[in-house]
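QA checklist item 7 of 12: single-chain prediction sanity check.
[x] sequence parsed
[x] length recorded as 551
[x] structure emitted
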Amino acid sequence: MFLAKPTENLFKKNQALPIETTFKLPAATPVWPPGGSFANGIIDLGGLLVSQISAFNKVWASHEGGPDNQGATLFEPTRIPQGFFMLGSYSQPNNKPLFGWVLVAKDVCSSTTKSTLKQPLDYTLVWNSASLKINQDSPAYIWLPTAPDGYKSVGHVVTTTPSKPSLDKIRCVRSDLTEQCETYSWIWGSNGFNVFDVRPSNRGTQASGVRVGAFVAQNGGSTSPLSIACLKNINGNTKPMPNLQQIEAIVKAYSPSIYLHPDEGYLPSSVNWFFSNGALLYKKGQESTPLSIAPNGTNLPQGGNNDGAYWLDLPAENANKERVKKGDLPSSKAYIHVKPMLGGTFTDIAMWVFYPFNGPARAKVKFINTIKLGRMGEHVGDWEHVTLRVSNLNGELWQVYFSQHNRGSWIEASQIEFQSSNKPVVYSSLHGHASYPHAGLNLLGNEGNGIGIRDDSAKSGLVMDMEAYELVSAEYLGSVVIEPPWLNFFRAWGPKIDYDIENELKNAEKILFGKLKREFDNIVRALPSEVLREEGPTGPKVKNNWSGDEV
């Protein structure tokens, strides 16, 4: 098992320069199969070449404030290839290993076209720390380049003296190669000044915005529009994407292992196992004559919307119904959707898993560790997923998205567990099958107050290897990938379950009194339907993240 080590001394004062990216994946990045522009080191955004830099010079650090009150560090990229220029500086909190990147750029437009890069005309001082009584290496001065007309700044320059940086230090980008961006995660702040990571405001498979990797410095909150822009790919976001052989190699290199809870009674299965073991298709008004489902769902209604006209259900016969509920781990596989993201600079590999049944929820209320909630949370059909985000510049895994009911989170590769070289570890929660990067208890509700729905996860002998997969969609490859008919079944994968939530809640609350009972009741009623739903979910292609970003 590989887990990044603590980094208390990672950002020591007066650390020798340059600093390379500290965190490395457990194993070397594979040599990818040839073909196309994937992992070639450079992407052409349209007369503007970009390359990804992960070697940095440390410029300044604070040793307090920010996440976990550990401060943050500001860097500038180093070892920039000849002919390329810095677009902005990089920053990250000190509570995690150094693991980041920024893009650098080179102008390759034709002589008859307006240059894609230009020096700034001047600089504006955004903020300085000279007068602040904080634990810092030295004073810091953060500068915003003044872009020429028709150009925009996409990052800042940081110095440790009040003298303005050289105009040759950074480049501004032609406006048609930029797009509006938004704050993403908070890095650091002091006395009304804040540093944020930024990303394109418009993200999805058709969106052309490109994340630079730079930060934005602001006096005030995360207001919009920001003083800097993101880049834009006007050269098509599918050109840097992996071909079929490269997809296979990526999955082989980075496919996760899912650890199910040792008490899990509702295991995943393949879709075809579910169909062939008696799953039924129901039509509204003809409930007495359900249909068996053909392999790959060839007789399922295609397209449309979830209008309640059709739904799937477990086998009608009770013994078989209970058997199918339990799933079939040996048949399970990941159903993979490959899509361009962030203007084609990254590949997202969404790995979907099907569970025939979602089990009942349980709660924790203060010192009462487990309260059974009857049938609350039960539903037929459960689609869960994790998503790998891989750089199209170098083929490296940068983030993994862990879906958790109606939400989820991106976790950097430096913050997750690995085993068997570069394969992430995923923990599936008991009965609800939410995905987490680490084992333990997560409470849905008021975690700080010790009240909520339990999402327990732990390592066990029940393991799903996601290297067993089926590529079900990669729209950018055209007819190379044929989507199975079940993928285009847009109705519910389970019926509306007939039970009284009010009655189930009252039964669960019998052991609670006074304030505890009121708090618990308020938290449960505020939970999203995905946690305590009464009906089956729709399939992967109906989800917003099918064509959009995860969050």
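[x] summary fact logged: The helical segments are 244-254, 271-276, 318-325, 501-508, 514-526, 529-532.
[ ] second reviewer sign-off
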